[in-house]
Protein: ABC transporter ATP-binding protein
Amino acid sequence: MSKQEQVVVAVSGLTKGYSQGGANVAVLNGLKMSIRRGESVAILGVSGTGKSTLLNILGGIDPADSGQMSVEGQDIVKLDAEGLARYRREKVGFIFQFYNLIPTLTAVENVMTGWEAAGKPSNLGDKAARDILASLGLRDKLDRFPEQLSGGEQQRVAIARALVKRPAIVLADEPTGNLDPKTAAATTELLLEQARQFASALIIVTHNPSIGQHTDRTLVLRNGVLEEQQHAASAPEAYAA
Ligand SMILES: Nc1ncnc2c1ncn2[C@@H]1O[C@H](COP(=O)(O)OP(=O)(O)OP(=O)(O)O)[C@@H](O)[C@H]1O
Ligand SMILES: [Mg+2]
Structure:
């Protein structure tokens, strides 16, 4: 496979602004990025630089103002509402800071929602959910409800829900922002391992520069564009405004 064929996410010239007091304030300003199959990327940047805005565009939740975006060769910009909904369900796995699990569903049932939304055969969903939860270390907690799980365990369920369909792209917005440092590190490790195993392109938005020591690349969002961070070790300085 050539390098070009391995590119899963290709974005260029992406712009997005919001009107503020009558003026348009640019958040993304001709942003460009390219991510290969199975590659993991950490995105750092001070608060308000547009990290969540970027993830929402990549995930087909919000439209960009202009620019190009393709995922697995599919032109996302051209999709209508129905096409975008399908793209989100089939190609994108989202992981949020506060888990967003459904409280009335068990761990297995929560994960099955991710499987079924992607249109996978429902008779295989239960096994797929149990298998991925087991590989995330939750073999003994499969049938628990979210409130019966710790924060770190709930986030592992959310990771399983996002990944069970083997999405082309996994978008995680401060996924460990609510966890203690030790649990955060272990959870990140599991997320990276699972995404690698499923060959999903993984984008982790984080305020924790040390996560970049574990991803393939670190990018810093600044002035509406992404800058490549050569050394994860130097991330703290770059991270400061
Ligand atoms: N719906 C909206 N309407 C107007 N302005 C918005 C909207 N959403 C985001 N913004 C503005 O866009 C900028 C980027 O917001 P965004 O949430 O993407 O930042 P962020 O990098 O994720 O910040 P944080 O690290 O605090 O989560 C901010 O200045 C924010 O106020
Ligand atoms: Mg944000």
Summary: The two ends are 39 Å apart (CA to CA). The domain at 38-63+80-239 is CATH 3.40.50.300 (Rossmann fold). The helical segments are 3-6, 51-58, 81-91, 107-117, 125-135, 151-163, 181-197, 235-239. The CA atoms of residues 209 and 234 lie 9 Å apart.
